[in-house]
Amino acid sequence: MKHFVSRLLASCVIVSAIAASPASAKDLKAVGVTVVDLGNPFFGAIAKNIETKIQAVAPGAKTTIVSGDYDLGKQSTQFDNFIQAGVDLIIVSAVDSKAIGAAVKRAEAAGISVVAIDNTADGAQATVTTDNVTAGKQACGYLADKIGGKGNVIIVNGPQVSGVMDRVAGCKDVLKDKSGIKIVSDNQNGVGTREGGLNITTGLLTANDDVQGIFTINDPSAIGADLATKQLNRTGIAIATVDGSPDIEDALKGHTQIVASSAQLPSKLAEAAVEAGIKLINGDKLADPNMLVAPQLVTRDTVADYKGWASK
What's the predicted TM-score (pTM) here? Predict the structure, then answer.
């Protein structure tokens, strides 16, 4: 399989925890996948790539994909359904990184390997995420440059899962060194949706009549934020975000105030999660159970060359 090249990025080490040769999938018969929200294109892309990878390494395996819909109780019940169905592996993008730990324990008590993807999940045997701290730094570093290193910035936050918190932490880490930039809001939860981004940004722009930049925790929120600027007839605002979705590609090419997105790579995340799961099922030890996949900054200047979520 492809190597994940080890390199030092910011303070994090991006490691290759998967062996060079493909793990045997002879014991993989059923996989349960539960993601935060299948209505979000990013999680839909992750799920599709997981299913494709499983079919490639274990053609006879059954993959069941469900949506947690930002509901911890629902995702916990999905774990119980997977346990009852006797799956060999659960891959989870957690609705709540800490609270899902109880469900993870139940699965592992039943002899089921659990791999967290995109977000951490307490107790998971392996975790595969984008380097979200770097993603936040990339997006907000570019945002700071676009507004000339000065002005008021709004952060449209999201559900308090590890990936979101890391993105915001990375953003703040970059902006704290910009003496001319002031963060006027950072704690409003846009729930990671277009509607949430629209509603939160509308409220914040109404309360703050002098805003030069907006950072949102994902692409749907950014598209909602851009719509808010249009509805309020607010111009001269740069919006940066994280995901690199097909929708943001269109936004970067079109008439929006969105200037950049730090792109995640669903195919790489899925590949690493499935390979880690197979190794766990086989009883093999991972070189490192915590794997980071580097993001790629996409801007209006570079979007034409961006390969997108379909890239391998």
Answer: 0.78
* pLDDT, tens digit (0-9, with 9 covering 90-100), for 189-238: 999 999 999 999 999 999 999 999 999 999 999 999 999 999 999 999 99
Nearest residue to 239 via CA among 270, 200, 212: 212
> CB of 240 within 8 A of CB of 265?
no
Pairing between β-strand 296-299 and β-strand 258-263 as defined by DSSP bridges: antiparallel
How open is the CA angle 179-170-45, to the nearest 5 degrees? 140
Q: CA-CA distance, 155 to 173, in Å (whole number)? A: 13
Q: Smallest Cα–Cα separation from 245: which of 265, 228, 225, 230?
A: 265
- How many CB atoms within 10 Å of residue 119? 26
Which class is domain 7-131+265-294?
Answer: alpha beta
> What tokens were used for 215?
């950072």
Give CATH for domain 132-263: 3.40.50.2300
Which tokens go with 278?
Answer: 């197979």
SS3 state of residue 285 = coil
Return the domain boundaries, the chain.
7-131+265-294, 132-263
